[in-house]
Design brief:
The protein is mostly helical. It is built from 10 helices and no strands. The protein has one domain. Keywords: Membrane, Transmembrane, Transmembrane helix.
């Protein structure tokens, strides 16, 4: 029989990478922009063909996701993002503008995550709590709220702020080639690093006797009810 202490330690070793995934989303976000950049870099620098290539790749990925049981909302969201980027670049005629929506979405995401920590609803806790089926139960555990808040700052600074700064600089310089490279470098490799770093911060922020993220410690009321 496994002791309570041993089960608590096992729970605390839960991998955020396993819980949150990331590789699928990274592919969805990376492949269409890479297709755009590679086709645009061909002789002629055709924005039309580049936009068409990005949309075609997005459609192929969407079809694959649906065939393998992917969520319709996630598939439609990815398609909409690529379609919007294609419309923007076709309208402006500036190839670097294909990455503009991606830049703005990272700025918005960074702000949202920062605000969530300040109002004590850290988004890392919201996401992990939903994945674990806890709903908002984790918020009744002050230690978890604090730990999720500290770990969420890793996402704000290590992912969204870094991406926003890099994309903004490259977009301003009009470097489509380096924007394409950055899209790859700042996708799954960065997500993996942020997941690992936030997991360390999360677990180290919990008291030594805490049972782990799967088992929020609900404060006991004066009547002895949890």
């Amino acid at each position: 029989m496994t002791s309570t202490g041993e089960s608590g330690k096992a729970a605390r070793r839960d991998s955020l990478a396993d819980l949150l995934g990331g590789r699928r989303g990274a592919l969805d976000a990376t492949a269409p922009p890479v297709a755009f950049g590679l086709v645009w870099l061909l002789p002629g620098h055709s924005i039309g063909w580049a936009a068409a290539a990005a949309c075609a790749v997005a459609l192929v990925i969407a079809g694959w996701r649906v065939a393998t049981g992917g969520k319709a909302t996630a598939v439609l969201g990815s398609l909409a993002a690529v379609a919007a980027a294609a419309l923007v670049v076709l309208y402006t005629g500036r190839a670097e503008d294909f990455f503009l929506i991606r830049l703005l979405s990272n700025v918005a995401s960074g702000l949202a995550w920062a605000v969530s920590v300040l109002v004590r609803w850290p988004l890392l806790g919201v996401v992990v709590g939903a994945v674990l089926g806890q709903k908002a139960r984790w918020r009744r555990d002050p230690d978890l709220v604090r730990a999720y808040g500290r770990a969420s700052w890793v996402w704000v600074l290590g992912q969204y702020t870094l991406r926003s700064a890099v994309f903004a600089l490259l977009w301003w310089s009009g470097s489509v080639w380096w924007l394409t490279v950055a899209q790859v470098a700042l996708s799954w490799p960065l997500i993996a690093a942020v997941l690992a770093a936030s997991a360390v911060v999360l677990h180290r922020s919990l008291p030594a006797d805490h049972p782990g993220i799967r088992h929020p410690r609900v404060e006991v009321s004066a009547t002895g009810q949890a």
